[in-house]
Specification:
By secondary structure, this protein is of the alpha/beta class. The chain has 2 domains: 3-20 and 223-413, UDP-n-acetylglucosamine1-carboxyvinyl-transferase, Chain; 22-221, Alpha-beta prism (UDP-n-acetylglucosamine1-carboxyvinyl-transferase, Chain). The chain is 30% helix and 28% strand. It has helices spanning 22-34, 48-60, 89-99, 112-115, 120-128, 161-171, 189-196, 226-238, 256-263, 307-314, 336-345, 377-388, 408-413, and strands at 3-6, 13-17, 38-42, 63-67, 70-74, 81-84, 105-109, 132-136, 139-145, 152-155, 177-181, 200-204, 207-211, 219-221, 242-249, 267-274, 280-286, 294-295, 319-323, 350-354, 357-362, 369-372, 393-396. The strands form 6 sheets. Strands 2-15-17-16 form a 4-stranded mixed β-sheet, covered by helices on one side. It has a 4-stranded mixed β-sheet with strand order 4-5-3-14, with helices on one face. Strand 16 (267-274) and strand 17 form a beta hairpin. Helix 1 packs parallel to helix 3 and helix 3 (89-99) runs parallel beside helix 6 (161-171). The two termini are 18 Å apart. Bound molecules: shikimate-3-phosphate. Residues 23, 90, 160-162, 165, 187, 304-305 line the site of shikimate-3-phosphate.
Length: 415
C-alpha cells in the first residue's frame, strides 16, 4: 500500500497551471471515438479514469494515438467486446447508455469500488426505451445486448450528470428523441460537446433533448478542472495565503465552489476570462478571517466533488459549518460521508455526520495523524489539504490521487 508523507506548511503562495478536466476528457475520448472521422483532443487529462476510457474505446475499435496531452482519434463502428472501466463511473455509465442502441454485445465491468456503485439509476430509464441490459443486482458487471430503442421523456429523480449523459447518448440511436428534465441543472459538458460534433441537442432551462443523429469528428481543447483546482485554492485559504490557478474551466454548472468561497468572505478574482463553449480563466483567491460554510441540499449537486475539500477547509474556519442533504456522496468512489468524517477525524477534527448531513466544528488545532484514503482520490487530496494547514500527516493508499490528479502531491503540496 502506498504511503505519502504530507508536511505541515507554514504558508501558501502559489501560482499553478490547472490540470485538464477529467469529466470533459472522458467525454471527448468517448464521443470522438464514436464520431465518424478524425478528431484531435488537446490538453487531454492523462489521469487513470481517462486512460480507462481510452482503453475501452480502443477495445471497441477506435484508433487513439496519444502524443503527450494530445489524442488523435479516428472513430470506428464498434465491435462486441468486454470493457474494463477501472474506477471510472463516468466511462461505465456513459458507455452503457451509448452502447444500448448499437449492434453488438458488450460486457462492462470495473474495479471493486466501481462494482459497488449503483447502476439502476441508468438501467431503469434505459429499459423504458427498450434497452436489453443484464445487471448484477443493480451493479456491474453488466452485459448490454444492443437493441432498437424507442424515445424517452424522463424526469430525473436524482440530480446526476452521468445519468443525464447516459440517456442523451442513448438518444443518438433511438427511434425519435430523448428528453431529460433535472431538478437542478447539473454539469452540461455532454450537451455542449454533442452540439460541437453535430449532435442534435436542444436545451430549455433544466430540460435537454437529444435527437437521433450522426456525430462527426472535430477538434476539442479540454479546459482545466475546477474540481482539481479546488484543492490548492482551499489550501491557500486554510493557510491565510493566496493562490492562482490558471486556465480553469468556468462553465457556470461547475462554478458553485467559487460562489461558496465568496460567500464565506474569501477574495476571489477571475482574470483572462475567455468566453467560448467551455469558458475558462485564471482564478486567484486570498482571504483573512472566513465565515463557516453553510450548504443546503439544493446546492449539493453543483458541489458534489468539492464537498470533501470544503470539509477540510471548514476544519480551519472558526464556527460550525454544515453541509445538509449530502446523501449522494454515499454513492461515490467511497461512501464519502463516512470517509470524509473518518479521514478528518484521524487528524483530530471535530466532525460528525447527522443522517446525510455533515457538521464540522472548526477552528480547533489539528494533530499529526495517519489517514486512510479508502482508495478514494478526493479523500486523499482533501485530507492532504487539511493536514498541510495543520500538523502534517501520512496518507495511506495515496496512489489513488492518479485517478483524477496524478501530479497532485508534487504541484499542490510540494512533495
Ligand atoms: C461526473 C458527474 C458527477 C461527479 C463525477 C463526474 C461526470 O457524478 O461526481 O465525479 O463526469 O458527469 P454524478 O453524475 O453521479 O453526480
Amino acid at each position: 500500500m502506498s504511503e505519502k508523507a504530507v508536511p505541515k506548511l507554514n504558508s501558501y503562495d502559489k501560482t499553478l497551471m490547472s490540470t485538464p478536466d477529467k469529466s470533459i476528457s472522458v467525454r471527448a475520448v468517448i464521443l470522438c471515438s464514436y464520431a465518424v472521422g478524425k478528431s484531435e483532443v488537446r490538453n487531454l487529462s492523462l489521469c487513470a479514469d481517462v486512460l480507462s476510457a481510452v482503453d475501452c474505446m480502443r477495445a471497441l475499435g477506435a484508433s487513439i494515438t496519444l502524443e503527450g496531452n494530445t489524442a488523435h482519434v479516428i472513430g470506428a463502428p464498434f465491435r462486441s467486446c468486454s470493457l474494463d472501466c477501472g474506477n471510472s463511473a463516468t466511462t461505465a455509465r456513459l458507455l452503457i447508455g451509448l452502447l444500448s442502441g448499437l449492434n453488438g454485445v458488450f460486457g462492462i465491468d470495473g474495479d471493486e469500488s466501481l462494482r459497488a456503485r449503483p447502476m439502476r439509476r441508468i438501467i431503469d430509464p434505459l429499459r423504458l426505451m427498450g434497452a436489453r441490459i443484464e445487471d448484477t443486482d443493480g451493479h456491474l458487471p453488466v452485459r448490454v445486448i444492443g437493441s432498437a430503442l424507442g424515445g424517452l421523456e424522463y424526469f430525473m429523480p436524482i440530480s446526476s450528470a452521468q445519468v443525464k449523459s447516459a440517456l442523451l447518448l442513448a438518444g443518438l440511436n433511438c427511434s425519435s428523441s430523448v428528453t431529460v428534465t433535472e431538478k437542478v441543472k447539473t454539469r452540461d459538458h455532454t450537451e455542449i460537446m454533442l452540439s460541437k460534433i453535430n449532435g442534435e441537442v436542444s436545451v430549455a432551462d433544466n430540460t435537454v433533448t437529444c435527437r437521433n443523429s450522426v456525430l462527426f469528428g472535430n477538434d476539442i481543447t479540454v479546459v482545466g478542472d475546477i474540481s482539481a483546482a479546488a484543492y490548492p485554492l482551499a489550501a491557500a485559504l486554510a493557510l491565510h495565503g493566496s493562490c492562482t490557478v490558471k486556465s480553469v474551466g468556468l462553465n457556470p454548472t461547475r462554478t458553485a465552489f467559487i460562489n461558496v468561497l465568496r460567500k464565506i468572505g474569501a477574495r476571489v478574482s477571475i482574470d483572462n476570462f475567455t468566453d467560448c463553449d467551455e469558458p475558462y480563466g485564471d482564478i486567484t483567491v486570498s482571504g483573512g478571517k472566513l465565515r463557516p460554510i453553510i450548504i443546503g441540499e439544493n446546492e449539493v449537486p453543483l458541489l458534489i466533488d468539492e464537498i470533501p475539500v470544503l470539509c477540510a477547509l471548514a476544519c480551519h474556519i472558526d464556527g460550525v459549518s454544515v453541509i445538509e442533504g449530502a446523501g449522494e456522496l454515499r454513492h461515490k468512489e467511497s461512501d464519502r460521508i463516512n470517509t470524509t468524517v473518518a479521514a478528518l477525524r484521524s487528524l483530530g477534527a471535530d466532525i460528525d455526520q447527522r443522517g446525510d448531513s455533515i457538521v464540522v466544528c472548526g477552528g480547533k488545532p489539528l494533530v499529526f495523524g495517519k489517514v486512510d484514503s479508502y482508495g478514494d482520490h478526493r479523500i486523499a487530496m482533501a485530507a492532504a489539504v487539511a493536514a498541510a494547514a495543520g500538523e502534517g500527516c501520512v496518507i495511506q493508499n495515496a496512489d489513488c490521487v492518479a485517478v483524477s490528479y496524478p501530479s497532485f502531491f508534487e504541484e499542490v503540496i510540494g512533495v
